[in-house]
């Protein structure tokens, strides 16, 4: 059924599907790990039961989201060897070590302390447990740092040379790691993760406030902390996004042209198009609605600054404008929507109605997935805007794909879609069920949900049957055990 399809397009769709599905979970778990570390620190400092019950409430959700992020990430990485083997061969000498460093530093750090964070509060003491929380939070951010270094290098390659065999080989590792777009992409992405988590937490808090949990200290604390984060981080994210856009204009001008819908050059100031229908064949933005000279003012800080358009770029060097144009507007629109909710929360807090304003609660609940959608829209803008290259200006996408027939790629794509929706759909459903129950006094911790550890070998202890046929509980282990 896929015989008439383009194998390169199917491989791109498959990678886009798996990476978009995967990044939902790190975007949530990066911020949630830091939130848990803050909650644990506040509990140890203030001895307030509300922080402990919130920690115990969110730690279970974090464990599920973290696991799904790891599994979906491993599946995604296999495609470098299956669908993109030529890319792996050519760029592997540069990108392979960076991805290995991510495993050896960040992933090992997370894996080493995750068990202590989940199960160790009563086993290792409060100090080491707090260290574990901080280590996991730092590990998630460090993991994102390495991955974003890899991704940024693909957009702004630096510090490399091309060998006689056509491979990219490292020349200066500092230039490779800290390539021109890396600082901006790292700041923008990490801030997006924290903002995404704040809106999810705020949405859960709003849900329980609307269900009559206004006197629940855990719910009140959850919602208040989330709204503070939204009010502070949303404007910061817009500023960082603007800086990232200026960096993109410097290094990838045709991406910005596609984002702005500028098919034609504007020698006396470019308009900011709000809406329109991009037509790549006709090379025009049909039914355009824009504000004169505002794009030049934003991008060049001069309303009369000339702006080049896609008419200066060869047709085979242009990205697909329609996808980039609309995904960018979705991302920006949701960013300003989240900014509005954050400002609304400040107003409600000032009026002493943070926990009573149902309109705020409805707004927070409706915008709870806004961060996730904005993150995906942002990645679509970034990655589709890089086309037709995998390594910008150096390696084209059509030259990066494995020599596979379209039916083989299409069959694996269908398998991914079916399995992902069944397996990860079940995981998301379970997370939503955990969110449905409000945090309460005596919230079970991870170690309190089972009678004991699962034995992977030997005999699993069972309740003992006495002489009179009455079951007795498991004996407590003695000092020697």
UniProtKB/TrEMBL annotation:
InterPro entries linked: Cyt-d_ubiquinol_oxidase_su_1
Keyword annotations of the record: Cell membrane, Electron transport, Heme, Iron, Membrane, Metal-binding, Transmembrane, Transmembrane helix, Transport
Biased composition (Basic and acidic residues): 443-453
Location(s) in or outside the cell: Cell inner membrane; Cell membrane
One MF term in the entry's GO annotations: heme binding
Membrane topology: Multi-pass membrane protein
GO cellular component: cytochrome complex; plasma membrane
Coarse class of the protein's main subcellular location: membrane
Gene Ontology process terms (BP): aerobic electron transport chain
Highest taxon, organism lineage: Bacteria
Location of region: Disordered: 443-481
Keyword Glycosyltransferase in annotation: no
Transmembrane segments: 20-45, 57-78, 98-120, 127-148, 191-210, 222-240, 323-347, 359-380, 404-432
Family: Belongs to the cytochrome ubiquinol oxidase subunit 1 family.
Listed name of the protein: Cytochrome ubiquinol oxidase subunit I
Organism: Parvularcula maris
Organism lineage string: Bacteria, Pseudomonadati, Pseudomonadota, Alphaproteobacteria, Parvularculales
């Amino acid at each position: 059924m896929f015989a008439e399809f383009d194998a390169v397009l199917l491989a791109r769709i498959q990678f886009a599907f798996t990476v978009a599905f995967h990044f939902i979970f790190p975007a949530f778990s990066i911020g949630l790990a830091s939130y848990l570390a803050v909650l644990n620190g506040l509990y140890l400092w203030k001895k307030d039961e509300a922080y402990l019950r919130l920690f115990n409430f969110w730690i279970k959700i974090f464990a599920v989201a973290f696991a799904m992020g790891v599994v979906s990430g491993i599946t995604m990485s296999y495609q470098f060897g299956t669908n993109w083997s030529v890319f792996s061969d050519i760029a592997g000498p540069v990108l392979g070590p960076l991805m290995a460093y991510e495993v050896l530093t960040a992933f090992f750090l997370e894996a080493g302390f995750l068990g202590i964070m989940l199960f160790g509060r009563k086993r290792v003491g409060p100090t080491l447990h707090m260290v574990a929380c901080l280590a996991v939070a730092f590990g998630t951010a460090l993991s994102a740092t390495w991955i974003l270094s890899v991704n940024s290098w693909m957009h702004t390659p630096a510090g490399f040379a091309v060998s006689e065999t056509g491979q990219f080989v490292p020349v200066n590792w500092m230039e490779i790691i800290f390539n021109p777009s890396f600082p901006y992409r790292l700041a923008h992405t990490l801030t997006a993760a924290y903002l995404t988590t704040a809106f999810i937490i705020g949405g859960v808090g709003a849900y329980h406030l609307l269900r009559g949990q206004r006197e629940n200290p855990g719910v009140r604390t959850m919602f208040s902390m989330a709204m503070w984060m939204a009010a502070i981080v949303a404007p910061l994210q817009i500023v960082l996004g603007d800086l990232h856009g200026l960096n993109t204009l410097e290094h990838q001008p045709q991406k910005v042209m596609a984002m702005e819908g500028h098919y034609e050059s504007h020698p006396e100031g470019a308009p900011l198009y709000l809406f329109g229908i991009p037509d790549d064949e006709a090379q025009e933005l049909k039914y355009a609605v824009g504000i004169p000279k505002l794009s030049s003012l934003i991008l060049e800080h001069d309303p009369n600054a000339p702006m080049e358009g896609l008419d200066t770029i060869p047709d085979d060097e242009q990205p697909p404008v329609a996808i980039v144009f609309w995904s960018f507007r979705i991302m920006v629109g949701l960013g300003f929507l989240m900014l509005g909710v954050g400002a609304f929360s400040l107003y409600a807090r000032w009026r002493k109605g943070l926990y009573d304003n149902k309109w705020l609660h409805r707004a927070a609940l409706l915008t709870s997935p806004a961060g996730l959608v904005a993150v995906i829209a942002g990645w679509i803008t970034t990655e589709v805007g890089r086309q037709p290259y995998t390594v910008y200006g150096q390696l084209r996408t059509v030259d990066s794909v494995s020599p596979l027939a379209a039916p083989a790629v299409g069959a694996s794509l269908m398998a991914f879609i079916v399995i992902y929706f069944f397996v990860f759909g079940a995981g998301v459903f379970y997370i939503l069920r955990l969110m449905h129950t409000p945090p309460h006094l005596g919230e079970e911790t991870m170690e309190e949900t089972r009678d004991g550890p699962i034995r992977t070998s030997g005999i699993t202890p069972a309740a003992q049957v006495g002489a009179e046929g009455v079951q007795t509980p498991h004996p407590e282990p003695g000092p020697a055990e």
